[in-house]
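Q: What residues go here?
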């Protein structure tokens, strides 16, 4: 969740590190800090709150001479979000500075041993324990490289660390297990970071660090070792084909609204190379080598889980494949019955979601093949999967996922069509219509988005004082109801719950009153008469309704929001941004921090 950057080069390190941290702000954080070595002493500057607070402290310090160092934005896991718990942490004797993402599960045991040896601790964190363990290792090993290896052999849990020491000026060490870490290779400078945007203005040459690897960088060299044996590891440099401009707002007030409006392009990019227009046929070279699964287990969290639920409807309907959709944090702690012939489909925007990665590991142990559906090239999900479909959404910066879900739905629709055709079970007319009409969605959506935003602004002001919302849907629109509720609560902090419309009378309808509105998915499909009946029940209890619907639909509600109608399931791609826009405009009107909502982080890389 936190942001890491380490630098060794020829430039002043601190300004570069702080700018790198600023490009990682989307990950969410509650404190920040930097550490460099000057005059054989570690210069440590930390601040609670946003980077502006760190800037104020740095302005009072002379830390411009050093050309190497580390920086961190922290999202609290151990210890409250105050300065003493901010990173970097120093060892007891102030010879080593370390930053850490993840959780050291056996930190208390190690801390007890170190306390017995006379160590003292200045924070409440597990991270400081690891820093002191490295310092203890330095007493018994001839180099920092060996000391870090010695310490890492003793810890359990997830980590990505970066370390500097007064013993080795100009050198940064880094290592990872189950927490993201990449290396940037420049000219006369090298970088380590938790994500590529941190160093993207300086290099597009990237080395992806695997679990159990230990990195040493200086301004002129980089080496990767097996963290346990210290044997050298051969690595391949990859070139990133997107630039820093893709990670900036482009004139929009927030990244979130920029990313909502990018969805037409996202759909086009996801379809590119996967729809043969001449033959009107789905082509998926990424999974061409595998037979359609006998059973599919979709493993995901949050918004990706909602995408998986949506995909279940189409994969079962079009490909006749039984689908189970699993919340990864629950799946990983069960002993699921996974039959041979099954396949696990892991969905993650970042490709670094800890619970989803643990689910992949469990599915592998049970003998399943893995398909990774993710957005980040070279991410952990991609590397752990047997087959990978990249969603081609480009970097998503806002914490609240929008365009990533759109791209996931596009990929899932393509999979359903592809497997249905390969098995010979999908109706030819349905296949042809879906493949053809999907290509028209980007232009229809691009034309519709400005008017949709205006309507979202009107409705958000009407209901900005609501304390709670129901989001209601049936069939394909039930997962969208869940997602609409999630978006509203995570960025506006208004309580919201998504329900299958028919479940309202099984309890939740007791909450309905004139101050408890409902947002309904009432689009023109075969289930519309059922949805209409459910909404009449809500109105009978005095509840007000916003309804996403289509032109000419017979529906009498307080606020009808008519969307352009397209073919069948493709209406999802029009309805989804409407839900996102309503949440966005509500949060913006209420003055919330839309891109970095409280208590949340972009990539959930720890439990």
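A:
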């Amino acid at each position: 969740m936190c942001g890491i950057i380490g630098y060794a080069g020829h430039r002043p390190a601190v300004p570069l590190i702080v700018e790198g941290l600023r490009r990682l702000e989307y990950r969410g954080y509650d404190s920040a800090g930097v550490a460099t070595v000057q005059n054989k002493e570690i210069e440590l500057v930390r601040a609670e709150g946003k980077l502006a607070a760190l800037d104020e402290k740095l302005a009072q310090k002379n830390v411009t001479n050093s050309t190497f160092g580390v920086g961190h934005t922290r999202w609290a896991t151990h210890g409250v979000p105050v300065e003493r718990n901010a990173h970097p942490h120093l060892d007891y004797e102030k010879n080593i500075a370390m930053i850490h993402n993840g959780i050291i599960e056996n930190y208390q045991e190690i801390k007890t041993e170190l306390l017995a040896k006379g160590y003292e601790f200045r924070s409440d964190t597990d991270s400081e324990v690891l820093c002191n363990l490295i310092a203890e290792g330095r007493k018994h090993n001839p180099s920092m490289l060996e000391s870090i290896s010695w310490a890492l052999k003793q810890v359990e849990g997830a980590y990505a660390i970066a370390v500097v020491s007064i013993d080795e000026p100009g050198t940064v060490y880094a290592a990872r297990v189950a927490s993201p870490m990449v290396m940037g290779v420049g000219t006369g400078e090298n970088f380590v970071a938790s994500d590529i945007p941190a160093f993207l203005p300086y290099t597009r040459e990237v080395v992806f660090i695997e679990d159990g690897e230990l990195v040493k960088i200086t301004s002129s060299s980089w080496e990767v070792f097996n963290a346990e044996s210290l044997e050298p590891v051969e690595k391949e440099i990859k070139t990133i084909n997107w630039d820093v401009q893709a990670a900036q707002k482009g004139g929009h007030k927030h990244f979130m609204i920029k990313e909502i409006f990018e969805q037409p392009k996202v759909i086009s990019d996801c379809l590119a190379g996967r729809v043969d227009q001449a033959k009107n046929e789905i082509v998926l070279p990424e999974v061409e080598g595998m037979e359609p699964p006998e059973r599919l287990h979709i493993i995901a969290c949050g918004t990706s889980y909602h995408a998986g639920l949506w995909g279940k409807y189409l994969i079962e309907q079009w490909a006749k494949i039984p689908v189970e959709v699993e919340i990864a944090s629950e799946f990983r702690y069960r002993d699921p019955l996974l039959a041979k012939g099954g396949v696990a489909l892991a969905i993650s925007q970042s490709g670094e979601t800890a619970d989803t990665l643990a689910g992949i590991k469990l599915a592998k142990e049970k003998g399943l093949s893995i398909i990774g559906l993710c957005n980040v090239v070279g991410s952990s999900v991609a590397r752990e999967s047997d087959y990978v479909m990249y969603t081609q959404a480009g970097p998503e910066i806002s914490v609240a996922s929008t365009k990533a879900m759109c791209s996931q739905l596009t990929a899932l629709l393509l999979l359903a069509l592809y497997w249905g055709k390969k098995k010979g079970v999908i109706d030819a007319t349905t296949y042809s219509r879906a493949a053809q009409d999907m290509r028209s969605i980007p232009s229809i959506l691009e034309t519709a988005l400005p008017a949709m935003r205006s309507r979202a602004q009107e409705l958000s002001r009407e209901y900005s004082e609501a304390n709670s919302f129901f989001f209601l849907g049936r069939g394909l629109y039930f997962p969208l109801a869940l997602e609409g509720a999630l978006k509203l609560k995570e960025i506006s902090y208004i309580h919201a719950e998504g329900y299958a419309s028919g479940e309202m009378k099984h309890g939740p309808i007791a909450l309905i009153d004139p101050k408890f509105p409902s947002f309904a998915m009432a689009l023109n499909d075969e289930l519309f008469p059922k949805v209409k009946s459910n909404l009449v029940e809500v109105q009978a209890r005095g509840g007000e309704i916003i309804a996403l619907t289509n032109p000419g639909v017979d529906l009498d509600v307080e606020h009808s929001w008519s969307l352009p109608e397209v073919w069948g399931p493709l209406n999802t791609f029009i309805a989804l941004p409407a839900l996102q826009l309503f949440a966005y405009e509500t949060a913006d009107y209420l003055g919330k921090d839309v891109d970095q909502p409280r208590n949340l982080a972009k990539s959930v890389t720890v439990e």
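A: Context that may help when evaluating the design: Residues 70 and 501 are 51 Å apart (CA to CA). The radius of gyration is 25 Å.
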